[in-house]
């Protein structure tokens, strides 16, 4: 009876062993980056919040100025507040879509490594 060398079994990893190795490496990486992800998430919430608030406030401020200096029967404040809010929501949607694409690309790269 012939016995296989240990080196032969190490070089010929089974597909299951390779998948387990990749998943274990992914978990180790996730544990190392757990705190970083929390701060990243909080930063993204702040970025999204400010990307909505700033255009909304700018629209309202411009509207107040126009209402005070050029009075009319329609409210510039309300119109520009809504326009600023719409622009802010578009900005937030843009940032979320961009980050979602980056996460998706990272996941595809990890899947290719398997």
TrEMBL record:
Protein name from the UniProt record: F0F1-ATPase subunit, putative
Transmembrane segments: 38-66, 78-97
Pfam family, one: ATPase_gene1
Source organism of this protein record: Paraglaciecola arctica BSs20135
Keywords of this entry: Membrane, Transmembrane, Transmembrane helix
InterPro entries on file: ATPase_gene1, ATPase_put
Membrane among keywords: yes
Taxonomic path: Bacteria, Pseudomonadati, Pseudomonadota, Gammaproteobacteria, Alteromonadales
């Amino acid at each position: 009876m012939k016995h296989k060398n240990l080196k032969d079994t190490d070089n010929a990893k089974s597909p299951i062993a390779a998948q387990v190795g990749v998943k274990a490496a992914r978990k180790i990486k996730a544990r190392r980056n757990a705190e970083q992800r929390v701060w990243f998430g909080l930063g993204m919430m702040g970025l999204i919040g400010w990307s909505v608030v700033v255009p909304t406030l700018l629209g309202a401020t411009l509207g107040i100025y126009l209402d005070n200096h050029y009075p009319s029967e329609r409210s510039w404040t309300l119109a520009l507040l809504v326009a600023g809010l719409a622009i802010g929501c578009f900005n937030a949607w843009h940032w979320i879509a961009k980050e979602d694409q980056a996460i998706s690309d990272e996941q595809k790269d990890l899947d290719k490594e398997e």
